[in-house]
Every structure is written in C-alpha cells, then in structure tokens.
Amino acid sequence: MNMVATLTGAAAGGDGTSDSITSPTDRTVLGVIRRAADVVVVGAATVRAEGYVVPRTASLAIVSRTGRIDGHRLAAASVGRVVLLVPESAAASPPEGVEVVRVGPGPDIAPREVLASLAERGWRRVVCEGGPALAAQFAAAGLIDEYCVTVAPSLTPAERPFLPLGTHVETDVAGMIVDEAGFSYLRLRARRGGAANRR
C-alpha cells in the first residue's frame, strides 16, 4: 500500500486531492514503487477525485461497485493495461481502451477476489493506492505486505482517516526518513501470521 496523509490523518488537502499534501520526494517514492509493481489498484472514487492517469510503468486496475468512472484521460490508455473490476450485476460504460472484468456477485468486491482476478493476468506485484475505504479492506483482510505512508507536515480537517481500520494490524518498522521540508516517509512491514486480528 502506498498513500499520503497529513498529521491529522487526512488523505487530501484543501483542494480535495492529495496533490496539495504531496512533495517532490513523495512523488519520487511513488514512481519507485510503481516501477516495481505489475499493477496499481485504486478505487473508482479516487480515480474521479484525483483525475487519475495510467501509470507509465504499471497497469491500472480500478475497483468499482457501480461501474462508473469519469476518467476521460484514461481513454489514451493502451489496450490491456487498464481494467475496471465490477460486480456481475453492475452496469459499466468505461472509456475506450478500458476492459470491464466482472468479479463476484456484488454489491461489494472482496479484496481476495481482486487479487485473484489480477493474478489470472499475471499481475502479481500489486500496489494499492487507496482510497481510504479500499485500502482499509485490503488491510483488514491481511493482504498488505508493506505499508508506505508519507506524512505531510500539515494540520488539516480530517472528516475520515486515510486508513479507516476496524481491526488491529501488527507491523514492524522497516524504514523511516524525514526530509528538510518536514515530510516523513514511513515503511511498515506486516507481520506474517498475525497481519490482521479481527475484533
């Protein structure tokens, strides 16, 4: 998982996106993580809010309960690099070049179903970039190996936490740095055998 948050736990700044709470170093980290991945997984709401484009070095998998994405900039994607994962019952009219993949009866798509569908395509190195609800589902299911979190030195209103967990996740610190601008970059590794303990 790779996400950015403020000191108060907000996943977005005043403009409603993560652009206003990121940094050049954070964007460099993002690029490194994406280059090591086969596919980036993200929720449809985040695609709409952030104006997502297709990563240069990884494929893009969008998870949606409704099949709705207003992502006109995705239309330039090469065929086979962008998939829209939806329940079997959902209607979907994606932009050209985006393939619809139906996963499970719905209305929700389980994280394990997402990973299984991606694995069928040979996409096994997966990075989840949120949003908060999707990332929390993956974390609660014990499916995240590493958490890479950039914390911006900002105090902002936070209606919802960037990772709204309902379970305790056991982790160990694998690395942390702080830059001159006050941004911290934290890498946590999930403990195997006890990654998620449901209440």
TrEMBL record:
<feature type="domain" description="Bacterial bifunctional deaminase-reductase C-terminal">
    <location>
        <begin position="1"/>
        <end position="158"/>
    </location>
</feature>
<feature type="compositionally biased region" description="Low complexity">
    <location>
        <begin position="1"/>
        <end position="10"/>
    </location>
</feature>
<comment type="pathway">
    <text>Cofactor biosynthesis; riboflavin biosynthesis.</text>
</comment>
<keyword id="KW-0521">NADP</keyword>
<feature type="region of interest" description="Disordered">
    <location>
        <begin position="1"/>
        <end position="24"/>
    </location>
</feature>
<dbReference type="InterPro" id="IPR002734">
    <property type="entry name" value="RibDG_C"/>
</dbReference>
<keyword id="KW-0560">Oxidoreductase</keyword>
<protein>
    <recommendedName>
        <fullName>Bacterial bifunctional deaminase-reductase C-terminal domain-containing protein</fullName>
    </recommendedName>
</protein>
<dbReference type="InterPro" id="IPR050765">
    <property type="entry name" value="Riboflavin_Biosynth_HTPR"/>
</dbReference>
<dbReference type="GO" id="GO:0008703">
    <property type="term" value="F:5-amino-6-(5-phosphoribosylamino)uracil reductase activity"/>
</dbReference>
<dbReference type="GO" id="GO:0009231">
    <property type="term" value="P:riboflavin biosynthetic process"/>
</dbReference>
<dbReference type="Pfam" id="PF01872">
    <property type="entry name" value="RibD_C"/>
</dbReference>
<dbReference type="InterPro" id="IPR024072">
    <property type="entry name" value="DHFR-like_dom_sf"/>
</dbReference>
